[in-house]
Design a protein that fits this description.
The protein is α/β, with parallel strands linked by helices. It has one domain: Vaccinia Virus protein VP39 (Rossmann fold, 3-Layer(aba) Sandwich), CATH 3.40.50. It is built from 8 helices and 10 strands. The protein has an 8-stranded mixed β-sheet with strand order 5-4-3-6-7-9-8-10, with helices on both faces. A two-stranded antiparallel ribbon has the order 1-2. A hairpin with a 4-residue loop joins strand 1 and strand 2. Helix 1 packs parallel to helix 2. The longest helix has 12 residues.
Length: 240
């Protein structure tokens, strides 16, 4: 179990457990006055629950995952939360989820390339975990293409990808008419290079080019959680 201030996450059925990336994204995501939200690759449902906590009672959240066990776990976690009436979980791929348009789309997508089939790493991974981690299940192309068609005119896409492919992600998004309005590079501490970048995208016709670039260090020089990280995640972390 992973316990937050207002909800609890069971994660025994999910290949990918609650992690720092999701906690940062769920705390940082741009919501504005959204009334419709899509959580792509929901896993445990952590992002849906975080966004439900951050929004008013009229906001409806659709959460999808291609893994049956993950979708069931997300559904159970939603039912056991204060926002069961606002979160709809379905076992579905993004490619087949074409029902409506959304004010906000959020995704902590798989972003590891599949290892060579002859490697021990490949053999050690369950199919479930491999799907949750690897881009073949949901490529940046898939995500941005969907958002081009289903993100409302003034809507926001919030997502994360490795810092090492930052230029590639921004360029790929632009091919689908999406403009990076804000990006935040995340590092474990000041001694390490960023490992992750969080993004806020909008349709290019409603946004200006990248105007804000931030940095977040998870820990300070003493090895403790930084003041910025605590402030960002305080509404959720029990220890903050």
């Amino acid at each position: 179990m992973f316990r937050c201030k207002q909800f609890v996450i069971a994660q025994d059925k999910c290949a990918m457990k609650v992690n720092t990336d999701s906690l940062i994204l769920g705390s940082w995501a741009k919501l504005n006055n959204a009334t419709s939200v899509l959580d792509v690759g929901t896993g445990t449902g952590i992002l849906s629950l975080m966004l439900a906590q951050r929004t008013s009672d009229n906001v409806l959240i659709d959460a999808i995952d291609i893994d049956v066990s993950a979708a069931q776990q997300a559904q159970d976690n939603a039912v056991n939360s204060p926002w069961a009436h606002r979160i709809n979980v379905s076992c579905s791929s993004l490619q087949s989820h074409n029902e409506k348009s959304y004010d906000v789309i959020v995704s902590n997508p798989p972003y590891f390339d599949a290892p060579h089939e002859g490697s021990n790493a490949y053999k050690a991974q369950s199919v479930q975990r491999a799907t949750a981690r690897q881009t073949s299940a949901l490529t940046p192309h898939d995500l941005f293409s969907y958002c081009q068609r289903h993100l409302k005119s003034n809507g926001w896409l919030n997502c994360v990808y490795p810092y090492s492919i930052k230029a590639q992600i921004i360029n790929t998004a632009s091919e689908f008419g999406l403009c990076a309005v804000q990006a935040m590079d995340v590092s474990h501490d000041e001694q390490h290079e960023p490992y992750l970048t969080t993004y806020r995208f909008q349709h290019a016709h409603t946004a200006t080019p990248l105007i804000v670039e931030d940095a977040l260090f998870i820990r300070n020089k003493a090895g403790e959680y930084s003041a910025a990280y605590k402030a960002l995640c305080k509404p959720f972390y029990l220890k903050f």
